[in-house]
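Record passed on underneath.
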Amino acid sequence: MDSTLIKLCLSLFPWADYRKRKGAMKIHTLLDHSGCLPSFITVTKGKCHDLKVVQDESYDFPQLLPDSIITVDRAYIDFIWFNTLRLQRTYFVTRAKQNLKYELVGQHTQPKNKAVVSDQIIRLTDKETKKDYPQNLRLVTYYDKEKDRKLVFLTNNFKLAAATIAELYKHRWQIELFFKWIKQNLKIKTFLGTSENAVMTQVWAAMIYFLLLAFIKFQTRYAWSLHVFARIIGEVLLEHVDIIEVLKLRFDKLKLLKPEPYQMALALKI
């Protein structure tokens, strides 16, 4: 679960107030790891905090299935919400804040992976957070060799290996790639209208287009990337060609399918 910010000109989009002189809106997305498809999307003004979307029932955030695992960044850390997930038998994985107050209860199983620095069982000690989340938590410290830094993860999952917990959070990067893709390919950074309704219509049309592309790609077992597929659709959308046959070709072969433009000749009188 994460959100992305789309900046808007406040003078043209006065409804999207974000800062004193800046406008923006947020696209909040719950990305399903199976297929990397969005299972929940809502669009809010830039001022809306990420945590409000998952806590406020008016946004219709779905109740996750038991034994699901949700990965979130530190913007979503709220122990009341975490306790709600625990009661729903849902697991969470996030990065721990540096000012987290806790006491060590014991050690988890001895880590086999050398990248795992420590695997501890903790209990919150702050008066408010302890009240919000009275159960034990798991604190995993992992050394990222690629970026030469230590990462500390907080989770309520005591079953998976510590290295698996770190790998789960690493896969959270897929939602960042999703946001990057839709911004580059779905034209949701420039808008045809300035009203709130016009902007929302364009955003939802873009999301529908993305899901249609993903569905056709899955049904046809298209081997190339979604980016190449989107370019192919853009090239042959108005051509009288069989889309199934087109999907069997590489993008650089499309010119063979497109007919030469007919050029009318002018009859000159001598």
